[in-house]
Amino acid sequence: SSGINAEYGHFMFYASRTLPNTFGMCCLLISTAYWINKEWESFLWWSGLGVLIFRSELVILLGPMLLLELLSKKLKMEELLTPGLQTAAIILIVCCSIDSYLWRYTVWPEAVVLYYNTWLNKSSDWGTHPLLWYFYSALPRAMLLALPLSVVGCLTDRRVLNFVTPALIFLGLYSLLPHKELRFVLYAVPLLNVSAAHILGRIWRSGIIAKLAVVGAFISHMLCCSLFLSAAYHNYPGGPAFQALHDLAPCSQNTTVYIGNYAAQNGVSRFGERCESLFDRRWNYVKAELAVEDVRKFNLLLVEPKEAEKYKITHSVVSKFHTYAGLKISKEPPFVMTKKKEALYLMKSKTVKKKLMVKNS
């Protein structure tokens, strides 16, 4: 199962990002290990950390795990209730104390996120997908060949249902939320991969031909993942654009930077702000939505091509950055290439003395 997970471009991509989902995944994987070993005290601690601090939706994945244990009478309610409440209380006291101090008001951050995204359904403002989108689009793209293998594993050995059932319950319940992203349900993938790994193990033990088939499947899966990785590489043009932006002026120069909505969602982050610190505020980065006249006052802009037309009176285009736009067949190796289209323009005020030129991406 770990070998299949390691091949996923999506899985490894999110593993490299400091998102709450990533930390929630770490807690989930450790919790699952304790669940398998029936070490309930450790399971409750790691589950509590994942649910109460990082991602509250993990409760609809970890909860069914405990429910299965209760229904099968492998776990008694008294073994769960008191330790669970004690663990939750300790985690909440520590979490709320630290966050309330940092935010300067009494707050439980994950409760605020849950209320905003789920109760108020404000996450829908960022886009929605059909009810079954996770099943027919997100998971097939994320799991590739492992998905049909997982289905076969469930049909041939009921033991794997102990892992797959909580994942399916989680996916079904989370599908009710209109706003959908792969990272929200990536937690289910390792559990589904247990079924895929199980069937691959059975095939591997069937003889030399079967072993060759498994190796071929792994190679095919790796090639598919590499293709998706190539596409993903071009899906975040804000990153290289933001890096190039910092080459246009020294950090010692007072500079105002406007970051458009597309750039802010596709690669630009505070980790890339090379010229701002607690003790040096000569660079000012702004991501708010502003009127055209206000944006024209900035020294540097990162905006979409359609937006750039509004600012050409006061700014000139320094560089253009591209994003993934599909695949095309080539007559030369590797025969399948990625198509790109213009996604971001890096613009510089015409009133600012030109420092450095940036090569087109």
Task: Write up what this structure looks like.
55% of the residues lie in helices and 12% in strands. Helix 15 links the parallel strand 1 and strand 2. A five-stranded mixed β-sheet has the order 2-1-3-5-4. With 361 residues, it is an alpha/beta fold.
Key features of this structure:
361 residues; single chain; 17 helices; 55% helix; five-stranded mixed sheet; alpha/beta; 12% strand
Report the major sheet: 5 strands, mixed
Strand content: 5-15%
Q: What coarse outline follows from CA principal-axis ratios? A: globular
Mean pLDDT: 88
What would you report as the Rg, rounded to the nearest angstrom? 24 Å
Q: Give me the number of helical elements.
A: 17
- Along the chain, the helix and strand elements come as HHHHHHHHHHHHHHEHEHEHEE
Q: Largest sheet, order of strands side by side? A: 2-1-3-5-4
- State the assembly state of the protein chains: single chain
Helix content: 55-70%
- The parts where pLDDT drops under 50 for at least 5 residues are 354-361
Secondary-structure class: alpha/beta
**Overall number of strands:** 5
Topology, please?
Layout: H1 2-7, H2 9-15, H3 20-36, H4 40-54, H5 59-71, H6 77-103, H7 109-119, H8 133-143, H9 146-156, H10 161-174, H11 182-185, H12 188-204, H13 208-233, H14 238-245, E1 255-259, H15 261-265, E2 283-286, H16 292-295, E3 300-303, H17 305-308, E4 315-329, E5 336-349
Parallel strand pairs: 1-2, 1-3
Antiparallel strand pairs: 3-5, 4-5
Helix pairs in contact: 3-4, 4-6, 5-10, 9-12, 10-12
